[in-house]
Amino acid sequence: MEAVRTNELGLRRDEWLERMKLFGLGSPAILLILVILVIPVGWLFYVSFIGADGTFSLENYERMLKRKSYARIFQTTFEVSFLTTGLCILIGYPLAYFIAGLPNRIANLCLITVLLPFWTSLLVRTYAWLVLLQKRGLVNEWAISLGLWDEPIKIVHNMTGTLIGMVHIMLPFLILPVYGAMKAIDRDLMKAASNLGASPRRAFWTVFFPLTLPGLFAGSLMVFILCLGFFVTPAVLGGGKVIMVSMKIVSNIELFVNWGAASALGVVLLVSTMVILWIASRFLNLEKMTGGGH
Amino acid sequence: MLRWFQSPATETQITHGQRLWLYVIAVITMVLLVTPTLIVVPMSFSDSQYLEFPPETWSTRWYDHYFGSPEWMLATRTSFKAAFLTMLVATPIGVLAAYGLHCSKIRFVRAAFVLMITPMMVPVVLVAIGAFYAYVQLQILYTITGLVLAHTVLALPLVVIVTGSALKSFDMSQEEAARSLGAPRWKAFLTVTLPQIRFAVVTSALLSFLTSFDEVVVAMFVSGGDNPTLTRNMFNALRDQIDPTIASISTIMILVTTGMMVLAQLFGQQKKSTKPSE
């Protein structure tokens, strides 16, 4: 009896050791992320609470509250993020719906049009829009020859240009999850709905659309979060007129070498991202639970 | 044709004619998704400073300028070197981590997984200035080592997610069978598990390469001096003016990315076609 027990204990210890060893396989990755990401970002947290005189102070955060320029930066950031997400939904949802209804072979071809820009470097796509939208660019040239407007107008180095570029870059992030949700829907449900007398519109809005909501939600969240921290596209296409949080962080360091101010902005950006993700994850889990309960 | 308009398009019997608007919007969107990127390719062969389309006179002067410039060549070499090394570092580390987390079912696994995908959730600007600060302390600023380490951190979440999901759909009892027949764990992994998740591993490797190759913001801060990346130089050039040389570089970058993705597809298809004979 005693022997069995020690044997069992030994086995359990072996199992635990084995599991720890396996977990240890992740240690190079964990170590790297700690050294390159977590510790430096933790240091930024610390620096954000250090004032110009080197002691603990909240001045970096107070500055954000007091100065109007900071309020405007946050306003612009949220404005750009909301508008981009909204436009992506308006443009992306119909396209996802269209592709989801096609036979597989053609759908795969159409998906390439979504994936091709997804693969292409962000900088290349931003540059392409810069070239197309400039005063002597193709868009102005074609619009004038079509008679849409008479003089070359300014569509880049401002909000319009930024939004065009951002929507183009974010669209695949919205379309792919929505498409995934749509493909998972049992189309017989739609048949049943119309069999029971629902008009096509009613069947869509009461049966199909609610089932795509988790995908739509995940995609929109992704787009919104990415937009909040976006740098390259607004920096190039905004022409200095659209200043988002990440751009202010960069200029605080590159131009003013003000780590305190940059860190405080970074902390606010990071915390708002995390809060949104946290709220969303609760909401998403709920969604899954209610979906699983049916 | 008319009959097609009146024929039902979906299960709800809505006709093609009634939802013609959807087709129009979808086609316009698809065109808008693809053309802006692709139009750069013919434009890069334009002789004009203003990159006309279609080019009135064709020339390779922007390519000559690119290949003749020592700065651009240095940046190109740095980018390829960094991307290649990132792939070599991130793939094994990430695959090991994904495998370890998948098999070890201790309590910290969830926390470790969250930690491994944080680089995806933290705004990249923060990663950049954090790494910049750390590298000044570690004295590896403007080195390939520093650049590769930072890019590896950015690539790790992709490797862990892609490989991890492949492991989830892999039947681990195959590996257990190999081990009960006497193979040590590492051998069972290399000869049984790895060959079956190889498509995910190759995809991870290609994604790591592209993550580094296309990355701008971190490279802006931690690359420079003797090791500036292509994207860093491109971004700086874009801030000043529209340099047509960028069009030729963009074309080359599109070629590299598309090449990578075609490779991934070919590898995937090979897997599918060989499967029945296996």
TrEMBL record, chain B:
Entries under InterPro entries matching the protein: MetI-like, MetI-like_sf
Cellular component aspect of the GO annotation: plasma membrane
Transmembrane regions listed in the UniProt entry: 20-45, 82-101, 113-134, 140-167, 188-210, 246-267
PROSITE patterns for this protein: ABC_TM1
Keywords: Cell inner membrane, Cell membrane, Membrane, Transmembrane, Transmembrane helix, Transport
Principal subcellular localization: membrane
Pfam family, one: BPD_transp_1
Membrane topology: Multi-pass membrane protein
GO process terms (BP): transmembrane transport
Compartment(s) of residence: Cell inner membrane; Cell membrane
Family: Belongs to the binding-protein-dependent transport system permease family.
Designated name of the protein: ABC transporter permease
Originating organism: Ruegeria pomeroyi
